[in-house]
């Protein structure tokens, strides 16, 4: 059985199908050593390369869609590696055999909270596409004077550099004076959109945390730097939301007796990772001092 090349590349997590069509049209993709054009189909037996790099081609029915919920701390960046040696969100994730974790959207270095990862590139692209209108909810602490007129403007829509934007809802959730907390909801994932919306009104965002993506909430028991894998029901909820077929398999254990200590396991893993990271930093600092 053959599939459209752009569909295979999208499933591998390289980008949306439209973006893959552009890459193919630019002559950056080859099959069995021959540069191909748009409209090409490919089988599992053929070797695909993008910019010279081999791309694994697994059919959709052989790939189990896995999804992780990660509680991102401030200070981590959403790239696989960083030339400056900063921490990345991928460092703490479980290792995979023959697959890789793909981030569903990003959070900037100063934003914490819920971040989703998956092994299914096509699913990731659909979740991020603006047409799907997937809700994202954030808890945000504002420094500055906020009045009802400002909140109404943010609900109605304000003009930013990349077009009009607005919050679907804004709810006050604590604080006093010029330090107040709000919960805001939007359906887009534009760069720094939450911060830019508030800053357009002359106030400052001093804390920002994502607490919900679709119907997936950030559990209070999940420590920063910890992750947990969604079960089959939760995976299929998200897949249905973006019109993708149900999964029939999961890698999550269903024996409750084996996972009742999940939270303590997560905390131990986070603590171990932090200790390992600090040891590595001390060694690098010592090496720099000696040199």
Explain this structure to me?
- This protein has 291 residues and is an alpha+beta fold.
- The protein contains eight helices and 17 strands.
- The protein has helices at residues 5-11, 17-25, 121-128, 148-156, 193-199, 232-241, 256-259, 262-290; strands spanning 3-4, 29-31, 34-35, 41-42, 48-50, 53-55, 67-72, 102-104, 112-118, 136-143, 158-160, 163-165, 169-176, 179-186, 204-213, 216-217, 227-229.
- It folds into three domains: 3-61, RNA-binding S4 domain (Structural Genomics Hypothetical 15.5 Kd Protein In mrcA-pckA Intergenic Region, Chain A); 67-130 and 217-246 and 258-279, 2-Layer Sandwich (Pseudouridine synthase), CATH 3.30.2350.10; 135-213, Pseudouridine synthase.
- β5 (48-50) and β6 (53-55) form a beta hairpin.
- The strands form four sheets. Strands 7, 8, 9, 10, 13, 14, 15, 16 and 17 form a nine-stranded mixed beta sheet that branches. A four-stranded antiparallel beta sheet has the order 3-2-5-6, with no helix packed on it. A two-stranded antiparallel sheet has the order 1-4.
- The longest helix has 29 residues, at 262-290.
- The chain is globular, with a radius of gyration of 22 Å.
- α1 crosses α2 and α1 packs across α3 (121-128).
